[in-house]
Amino acid sequence: MEDVDIVEDFQPRGKSAPSGRTTRVQDPKLRVAIEHRALDVALDYYRRIGGRDPKELGKAYDLAVNVDGVERHCEVKGSSMLIDCVELTINEVAHGSRRDNVDLIVVDGIEASRDRSTGEILASGGSMRIWTNWTPEKEALTARRFSSTLPLSCD
Question: Which intervals of the chain are annotated as region Disordered (predicted)?
């Protein structure tokens, strides 16, 4: 299997990504619209269960929210496709591995459309799945990139 992201720019709603493959939105405006929609769905979920004082962060995790006196950290992933695999940064993996009260929320099947006259992208819908008290499982992680220090001299 080729280790390449599936480009999901304006894929038909409900299309499934190949199993085990991550997706990547190339269009920066579309990527932001999908991310914001996923965050909106996550924030709505926390409000419904009595979450208070939500803070959007973006580094190491996306949201912090107080639920029943406990600060929960939430990693939010969004996609226009139906996905079974997400891309995680090393910071997201480290944070989820060392901290309690971390939730992973995936909102997939988000519908996006571009207004032809303004170019604005509108995102709506999506189905939410949540893994409460999530810890990344080592056997579920696949290395996709490496950093290599260059030798001091070259030939």
Answer: 1-25
What does DSSP say about strands 6-7 and 23-24: parallel, antiparallel, or unpaired? parallel
Query: Which residue type does 21 have?
Result: R
Q: What is the phi/psi pair of residue 65, to 5°?
A: -150, 145
Domain boundaries, the chain: 6-138
DSSP conformational letter for 82: B
What are 86-141's pLDDT values in tens digits? 999 999 999 999 999 999 999 999 999 888 898 899 999 999 999 999 999 999 99
Using CA of residue 112, residue 118, residue 120, residue 123, what is the dihedral sign? Answer: negative
- Count of Cβ atoms closer than 10 Å to residue 89 Cβ: 11
Q: Any idea which residue has 């579309």 for tokens?
A: 30
- The whole-angstrom separation of Cα 56 and Cα 42 is 11
CB 107 within 8 A of CB 75: no
